[in-house]
Amino acid sequence: MMDQKNTLFSQQTFAGAIELIWREAELLDRKDYREWLSLWDPAGFYVVPIDPATTDFAATLNYAYDDQDMREKRVQRMMSGYSASASDAARTVRTVSRFTLTSETSDEVEVSSAQIIVAYKRGKSTLFAADLTHRISFASGEPRIAQKVIRLIDSTEALSAIGFLL
Amino acid sequence: MSDSSYQTVDASALYQRAQSDRVAPSLYYDPAVFETELERIFYKTWIWVAHESELPNPGDFRTTTIGRQPVIVVRDKSGAVNVLQNRCRHRGATVCEQHKGNAKGFTCPYHSWTYGLDGALRALPYGDGYEGVIDKTELPLASLRVGIYQGLIFASFNQDIEPLEDFLGGAKPWIDLFMKQGVGYPIKANGEHRFRFNGNWKIQLENTTDLYHFPVVHKSWMKSIDDETAAAITSFMTSDQAFCRSLGNGHSLAVLVPELVDLDHDDGAPIPERFEELAATLAKKHTPDEVRRIVRSLMGVGFNLNLFPNLALSMAFFRVLRPISANETEIRHVALAMDGGPEEANRVRLRIHEHFQGPFGFGSPDDAEAWERVQRGSHAGPDLPILVNRGLNRESTAPNGEKTAHATDETGMREAYAQWRTMMEQA
């Protein structure tokens, strides 16, 4: 009986996490970055690492390693009109799938997934493929992103400038 | 043996396209100009390939590309740094495809020809087919000339090139000043951002001593930092202490924060508020003077030094460019750390680097946008010149030939184009 209850809880939290990740993807493609900020646990980090093996993000160089303050500044920059690359950013369509529940505790789950973004700008489409890992907290009752790590498959190669959020 | 499949230009007519204060836009997109640049600049002069801190131990290597030619930079058992063409002497396959690592030697994946860290051909399988045909000692991985200054490793395909120190010339004292941001610790390469933009390499070359663009292109970055830092960084716009200077051989300098030119000279300014927390942490293990010295060095030095043709020492990082085609360029921004220095300060340096640099930074994508717009726009009005004449009216020339004008002037670009033309016109 207890096992069935746990399984049900697990399925519900997993489904809730996936729903949040899809909602996030839709907001990012629509560039509704202010709403995107509200999905976050204020203590969370948004990370785009370079080194495929690193887990100590604070000690290594990343493409992005954003706490709440930096996330807000990044969004502010993109919406300010002062950034030529963000004002004329690529349009994006992204697919997030291949979800795996990699760990769970009573109030947090970790979900890994695959993300494919096609970014279109000035007649050219560019692909950004990545493994995602979301840590999603249920501590406040509502699901919140406690960490998002975006491991681009070509992170150690030369990338095109990115005027939108991954 | 030259590759005749590429069309090069008639260099004797280049003076019409590259004058001292203006250049033809076709220099950005003419494929024949690009091929000539590879032959006469990138395959002739000193090209920066790595920093010594990337190769601390025997067997440590990193691979890179000069023009189209892949090379391996490797430290051998004697401790010497070799730069080897990454190409088997048999049928031409690359012998290493990793960006970096440690190796005992390099083995070709095609027929297992094996080379030592010094490039010597050590072994090949089933050698009976070569008896009396080849002499192994005559088939090493081809070596480039290597020169090292302040840990900066340069290489050249030209075995008769002038010594590196002569080539660096007037830039050397500025390289010495740049390295002071190590605060007595050796400078260490600490990761890098790599990105590409759809534009010619000279557009990036021009940019390093182009301070005129900074408050315009990087307004969104300035809005994201504290007012105190933003004001300090852009004070050069109206300061008569800030300057741009030609240093000879295509090298140039742009000083934007004069009080941070020599980090050993403490101007006594208070520690910026945003670094106060770090300073308090450092004070537990360091003297007050050391704390000031470390904190004053976090943003690097107060200048950008452009070393023709592919390296810049830019405030707190190395900027490396690689031409890919007339219309495409790769940039690396190498972050720097104090090797063995306080970890908490090195982490702040990483965060400062991430904040501005790279394809996802608050600064570089806007640079790339501006450069791509130059590349696209320059096709309009092919007879309209690209102007690099700003500040000609206030440029002074020192007895040693170095020209100085205001920090926002285009003296550095004129120096780079003068060297460009000199090299392009050499047969």
Automatic annotation (TrEMBL), chain A:
CDD domains linked: ring_hydroxylating_dioxygenases_beta
Name this polypeptide is given: Aromatic-ring-hydroxylating dioxygenase subunit beta
GO biological-process terms attached to the record: 3-phenylpropionate catabolic process
Record keywords: Dioxygenase, Oxidoreductase
Taxonomy, superkingdom: Bacteria
Family statement drawn from the similarity comment of this UniProt entry: Belongs to the bacterial ring-hydroxylating dioxygenase beta subunit family.
Matching InterPro entries: NTF2-like_dom_sf (IPR032710), Rng_hydr_dOase-bsu (IPR000391)
GO MF term list: dioxygenase activity
TrEMBL record, chain B:
Swiss-Prot/TrEMBL keywords: 2Fe-2S, Dioxygenase, Iron, Iron-sulfur, Metal-binding, NAD, Oxidoreductase
Names of required cofactors: Fe cation
Domain Rieske: 46-155
Annotated spans, Disordered: 382-409
Pfam families membership: Rieske, Ring_hydroxyl_A
Residue ranges that the Swiss-Prot or TrEMBL entry lists as coiled coil: none
Xref: PROSITE patterns: RIESKE, RING_HYDROXYL_ALPHA
Transmembrane segment boundaries: none
GO molecular function: 2 iron, 2 sulfur cluster binding; dioxygenase activity; iron ion binding
Signal peptide: none
Family the entry assigns: Belongs to the bacterial ring-hydroxylating dioxygenase alpha subunit family.
Protein's recorded name: Aromatic ring-hydroxylating dioxygenase subunit alpha
